[in-house]
Design brief:
transcription cis-regulatory region binding (chains A, B), homodimer, Rossmann fold, DNA-binding (chains A, B), 43% helix, repressor (chains A, B), DNA-binding, transcription (chains A, B), 3 domains, 6-stranded mixed β-sheet
Chain lengths: 329, 329
DNA sequence: TTGAAAGCGCTACCAT
DNA sequence: ATGGTAGCGCTTTCAA
């Protein structure tokens, strides 16, 4: 690979001048610049990012930590981040924490040691001391905390919405699945649903699903019908769990949506292909990713953030696991 | 962040000695080492990867290029790669090419400029000249070429198997979906199915699905039933497409598996949750990822590769979109 | 407008 | 067994 020295030699100038030329800093004569551009092109020169990074203590790399790359919600977030970053000349490197604390810590460490210029984390353990001692900006995605800027969907409204739709469509013995308690987002959804159910004066049971992951979703589904065989409406903790419940409902012979209504959360691409197609509360994952990226870029550029906590609206997506409602809103 | 200088000062030795100590190279007295370890711990020193990388022209980073992070097959590959790499002290950075050539090129460039020590690519355009001029080893994953070591599943056998199962279970007007022609893997599957169908002397139509992606899957499904309304057996190009077909089949009122059998390819986690649960040809994605990682690590360590093309077996997963067969194998 | 030189943090060579 | 030092490729003073 050609270095800046090669370029300098070829153009007959010093490396300092070349450096100024590439970075558009300080003076460089028009003619000299031409010479340099020419040399760069001929040698197909690309500045060595590592050397730059060593000097600047900043690369052009952005780290993104995902808690579980297998849950389709997160790849969608990643795409939003990616597209926005790409448009601004930053490069994204993704780390999959696999819901394991040590992996997450490893990735943070890797990102630090490789001089990322910023970090977006959609992962579990934002409370971690690891996140405090960062020398670069951090944005929380699909998570919140007091200390860091964040982007998340309105889980509380989502919870209320899910409950309201279910009630309006006639479920009266509702089972509310509560996601992992560590997640603020999961708690928000839960609280929203509880509040709505209380105020509508509808009976409901609560079951905790201690994870959002695939492997366990089936287990939660089985447990659900064992514990609450009479339930006629389920508010699932996310679409993956909802998918498992639909599957199990078929197995135990429940008719959907006649005998059992189900509402998911997320609206992952697969939900439309389920049978019956899953009604769900949609989080605008792609947009959330983009917003998080924008927030991070602002910080990198040293701009003031007008809002540190960006909350995006959710939306009820009506499909086939809910009945036609008589409501109007 | 503490540097090697700080450690040296604190331990009262030279940086050279510290360097030798951390890297276990050359002599360093037991007592000195203790001093150094002590200093490292007190300062919480971590060697700066960027500086190391600048000198060595090698980082500990492995690049992984995925063609489409939204197709659940690829995250599964990624996890295999990740786990194996982690066990060997390498760090994985994932790039999502999003099936776009320029993004793929960008990622290769980023990886180069950040001195990755090796690259695994599951992406489209392995033919690219970009892949030729690499200064670090490359392993192709879910792809093959003559020039580079690769790991892939036995698509040909998979195609045969899919066709055989469908025929044995009584489909006689089969529609064979052919994936994107650029992919050797897609061509292999196709060829396998064609060969089997010919030798079984069964009628079949061919429809090309020019992508594996979600957004288009629904379109292929609709096209399928418009063009071939009488088909009673579909060999889908992958599970995502199969999911869309199941969905569409419900819409047009086809009973599965009685009137229509479907076989997918991949066995992504979601397939078990479809209704009817999808029968499919399973690729051992996680293992493929691990094997690719092993292959890359061997190359990095300069070991000879006994086999450059690793082919993993596929397997028929019987679920509900195929009828009970009368066959025995 | 340009260039010489120092230095980012680390490793490796060569002395000692 | 240890240390001084050059140099990886780049940017940035500072002088010219």
């Amino acid at each position: 690979m050609a270095t800046i020295k090669d370029v300098a030699k070829k153009a007959g100038v010093s490396v300092a001048t070349v450096s100024r030329a590439i970075n558009d800093k300080g003076y460089v004569h028009e003619d000299t610049r031409k010479l340099i551009d020419e040399a760069i092109r001929e040698l197909n020169y690309k500045p060595n990012e590592v050397a730059r990074s060593l000097f600047n203590k900043k690369s052009r790399l952005i780290g993104l930590i995902l808690p579980d790359i297998r849950n389709p919600f997160f790849p969608e977030l990643a795409r939003g981040v990616e597209d926005e970053m790409q448009a601004h000349g930053f490069r994204l490197i993704i780390g999959n924490a696999d819901e394991q604390l040590d992996k997450e810590i490893d990735y943070i460490e890797t990102f630090k040691l490789n001089n990322v210029i910023g970090l977006i984390s959609a992962s579990t353990n934002a409370v971690l001391s690891q996140y405090k001692s960062l020398s670069f900006p951090l944005v929380l995605l699909d998570r919140t905390s007091e200390e860091h800027p964040s982007v998340h969907a309105d889980g509380y409204a989502g919870g209320r919405l899910a409950a309201r739709e279910l009630v309006n469509r006639g479920s009266s013995r509702i089972t509310l699945l509560k996601g992992p308690v560590e997640f603020q987002t999961a708690r928000d959804r839960f609280k929203g649903a509880v509040d709505e159910l209380y105020s509508a004066n509808v009976e409901f049971d609560v079951m905790t699903t201690a994870s959002f992951a695939f492997q366990e979703a089936e287990y939660w589904a089985k447990e659900l019908f064992e514990k609450y065989p009479d339930t006629d409406g389920v508010i699932a903790s996310n679409d993956v769990v909802a998918a498992a419940i639909i599957h199990e409902a078929h197995r135990v012979g429940k008719k959907m949506p006649e005998e059992l209504q189900i509402i998911g959360f997320d609206d992952i691409p697969f939900s439309q292909f389920l049978y019956p197609a899953l009604s769900t509360i949609r989080q605008p994952a792609y947009d959330m990713g983009r917003e998080a990226a924008k927030l991070l870029i602002k910080q990198i550029n040293g701009e003031k953030l007008e809002s540190k906590r960006i909350q995006l609206p959710v939306q009820f997506i009506e499909r086939q696991t809910t009945r036609k409602g008589d409501h109007h809103d």
